[in-house]
Amino acid sequence: MFPGFKSAALSHRDLAVHAMFEARKRVFVDLLKWQVPVLDGRFEVDQFDTASAEYLILTDETGGHRASARLLRTDGSPIRWELFSHLCAGPVPSGPPCREITRFCLEPGLSARERRDARDQLVTALVRHALDTGITDYTGVASPAWFEQIMRFGWDCRALGEPRQAGSGRLVALHIGIDAQTADRVREAGIYRPLTAGLVLAGGLQ
User: Which residue in 172, 11, 6 sits closest to 89, CA to CA?
Assistant: First the structure.
């Protein structure tokens, strides 16, 4: 169940999750005009926000949202890749050590420099989380322009097919391999920004 909206006793984790869902609504619904569900007029929550989802959330000193990403398992159902199988030229990596990165979200109210810092810190958190938990593969979909940025982050990233039409735009399916050298390669690319505070790892909704 989604944590109570008006409770005065919300944990730091729940406050971070609330802030993330509110930010997702501002970015994906208000800014990008996606036709996705909105809960209580404030929260962008869809059918993949389940108990098996994981969230990496970067917060500021007041607990406000800076950046976040949702990680979905690829060894169970529902699998979001069923919606995007036409983007892949061959088999899609899947299984217990593979996660799909979705809802990569940067707080729209940040300055350009703050957004870049948050982006780099979230990429670093994704790498560290994978190394700490045994994740060896990430998958995802991105616009061609965003995919070109992701390719330059230093990690082992490749397209799973040619860009294709999906809804109102073109998307690229992608695969990111994670190994013991990934952190060093991301550091060499100038992206690695470890966090000492302000990172919340949240499990899925109950």
Answer: 172
Closest CA to 146 of 171, 175, 169: 171
- Kindly report the pTM of this predicted structure: 0.91
Residue 70 per-residue DSSP state? E
- CA distance linking residue 204 with residue 206, whole number of Å: 6
- Spatial CA neighbour of 171 closest among 111, 106, 88, 107: 88
In angstroms, the CA 23 to CA 29 distance is 10
- Residues whose CB is less than 8 angstroms from the CB of residue 183 and which lie 6 or more positions away in sequence, other chains included: 127, 128, 131, 192
Q: Is 76 exposed, middle or buried (0-12, 13-18, 19+ CB in 10 A)?
A: exposed
Per-residue pLDDT of 38-84, as tens digits, reads: 999 999 999 899 889 999 999 998 889 999 999 999 987 545 667 78
**Which residues sit opposite 171 in a β-bridge?**
164
Which positions ≥6 away from 91 have C-beta within 8 Å? Answer: none
Closest to 141 measured CA to CA, from 111, 175, 110, 97: 175
DSSP readout, 122-166?
HHHHHHHHHHHHT--EEEEEE-HHHHHHHHTTSSEEEESS--EEE
